[in-house]
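FW: tagging you since you asked about this chain on Friday. Here's the raw sequence from the shared folder, copied in full. Didn't touch anything.
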Amino acid sequence: QVQLVESGGGSVQAGGSLRLSCVAAPFTYSTHMAWFRQAPGKEREGVASITVGGGRTHYADSVKGRFTISRDNAKNTLYLQMNSLKPEDTAMYYCALGRPWGPPLNRYDYDSWGQGTQVTVSS
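HL: got it, structure written out here
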């Protein structure tokens, strides 16, 4: 597994913005970096992914048009810009590395996880 460290979470009002960051230790095996989130009592769900090589992105329908995933390969850092936040975006957000063969946001295809950063959106 690769060490991942997230930061940038916090509490904001609905309509606000946050930018999450994830610094990864050097890696060679993974093809995708992604953000997942998990709210209390719910399963962990994929939010957005990006390929390490080509920068191809994929988003969950619930965040399309509001969230943007990006990465800086030179810094081994993954970002998630979150705009127009809603109360239903409240969750623990996790950074992950993996090699998905099918849908890019299948959590079972990711084998390195960060400790998470909490995002709370109030109405």
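FW: The chain has a mean pLDDT of 95.
HL: agreed, and The radius of gyration is 13 Å.
FW: great, closing this out.
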